[in-house]
Amino acid sequence: MSETFSDEDRNRLAPFFTNVDHPVFGLKLPQEVAGALFSRYSRSAKSLRRTFLDEFLGDGLIPSRPAEEDPQAVRKARDFYDRVLIGYGDDSVAQLGGAHVAVERVSNVAVQVLEESRIGVAFLEKSTRYVRFDQRGEDGDWLFHREEKLMASPHREAFLALMRLLFETYAAQIEPMAQHIRRLLPIEAAELRHPGTGEPIRWEEAGRDPDLRKVADRAYAATVRAQACDVMRSYLPGATLTNLGIFASGQAFEHLLNRLYSEELGECRCLAEAIRRELDQLIPSFVKRSRRSDYLVAARERAAEGAGRLGASRGGAGGPSVALVDHDPDAETRILSALLYPHAEEGLGPLRERVRAFPPPSADASSSSRSRRGGTGGTSR
């Protein structure tokens, strides 16, 4: 399901996107504009194309129509890449070109599969901390993915009931949670910063200046929303639909598509087809070899079979949900030695022995160190 645009909006969008009808589409924009658009998109409840219409197009950021492509130059460039990629097998050429692709209304489960491919790929996801997820779709139902196999299974009704309960609870509690945060953190006690200098200012100072007052009100509202969403996102299931911006080189897209084509999850294989269709309009030479990998499929099946023989398959005997399975007992020695090494006149081996012989920190020293970090241990986020 994709957003519906008026005929006028469709005509305005068409030159800048590979399609205006589907939830997966490519961007035909200067890369700087596409990056800014993705950044704004990650903190907005609106779709990317709607954000583009409302906040970018005709606002001086880009012209109302893109510069016309030179078809002959494009054809020559693609012919060259075809010769190098196919004729000589020089995959590094595919690192020289890239594309921006938006993937909308995709489940968080599929997003995790996508984001496992971090080498050469940049992702920016719709934030569960800055955007409320209490909106319903055009069909009146909550925005969660209905995996085809699950919908055909005996668990269909139980799954639907659970998803609706989670979203209904989220929607019912998000505003009371915001009110609770306003009581705990009134605007007079909130940390405010001057929009021009970044210096901290008191609420009393901001209140005396109408412009500062407006900035302070917006900043406070954003703080309350972020804290409320931060608490309430615990309700959001893996099936929650989200939006994702992707930028990658041609080579990285090829590897990403190979993985998606080879996934067991039907949503991922459908995404592979959808992303490939759009990239064929943007960087076809780079992704023409992407396909299902028999090796990846066989490796997954062999691993699952081996786990089954060991009795370690999912759904086996329960155990603690959190357990420490490994650690490096020499980690502090390694880190301290690495920090000292550029400034020492001895080798790394002897330096490690020197560091290993350090006496343990005293209780007073540990307390002083925590005080300097501004807390009682741990990291403030």
In short:
With 381 residues, this protein is of the alpha+beta class. It is 50% helix and 8% strand.
Could you explain the architecture of this structure?
- 50% of the residues lie in helices and 8% in strands.
- The longest helix has 29 residues, at 156-184.
- The radius of gyration is 26 Å and the shape is globular.
- Strands 1-2-6-3 form a four-stranded antiparallel sheet, sandwiched between helices. A two-stranded antiparallel ribbon has the order 4-5.
- It has 381 residues and is of the alpha+beta class.
- The chain folds into two domains: 7-128 and 240-307, Gyrase A, domain 2; 148-235, no CATH class.
- Residues 371-381 have low confidence and may be disordered.
- It starts with 6 loop residues before the first helix and ends in a 9-residue tail after the last helix.
- The protein contains 16 helices and six strands.
Mean pLDDT: 83
Number of domains: 2
Q: Could you estimate the helical fraction of the residues in percent?
A: 40-55%
Shape: globular
Sheet with the most strands: spatial strand order:
1-2-6-3
H/I helix tally: 16
- State the CATH class of the largest domain: Alpha Beta
What is Rg?
26 Å
Task: Kindly state the number of beta strands.
Answer: 6
The name of the CATH architecture of the largest domain is 2-Layer Sandwich
Structural class: alpha+beta
User: Are there runs of 5+ residues with pLDDT below 50, and where?
Assistant: 371-381
The name CATH uses for the topology of the largest domain is: Gyrase A, domain 2
Our estimate of the beta-strand percent is: 5-15%
Q: Measure the end-to-end span.
A: 36 Å
Order of helices and strands: HEHHHEHEHHEEHHEHHHHHHH
Largest sheet: 4 strands, antiparallel
